[in-house]
């Protein structure tokens, strides 16, 4: 997994895009007290379920891998 040049900013962008996507679909309403890691995991699973991104192999699922996958998704948006 090659780290992206501006991965931290892309993760923030992915979080904003993913929250908007989930709320526009009407499947989730995030609370201000929800942690960023919980939001990122939910967004990842929602995007995989909708077929927007490819799922990670089960043995490779980790917070760092989820952040990287979502950063790559945000870079294409």
Automatic annotation (TrEMBL):
Lineage top rank: taxon: Bacteria
Name under which the protein is recorded: DUF5062 domain-containing protein
């Amino acid at each position: 997994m090659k780290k992206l040049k501006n991965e931290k900013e892309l993760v923030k962008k992915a979080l904003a895009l993913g929250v908007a996507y989930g709320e526009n679909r009407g499947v989730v309403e995030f609370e201000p007290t929800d942690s960023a890691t919980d939001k990122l995991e939910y967004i990842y699973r929602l995007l995989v379920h909708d077929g927007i991104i490819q799922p990670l192999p089960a043995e490779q699922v980790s917070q760092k891998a989820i952040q990287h996958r979502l950063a790559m998704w945000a870079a294409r948006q």
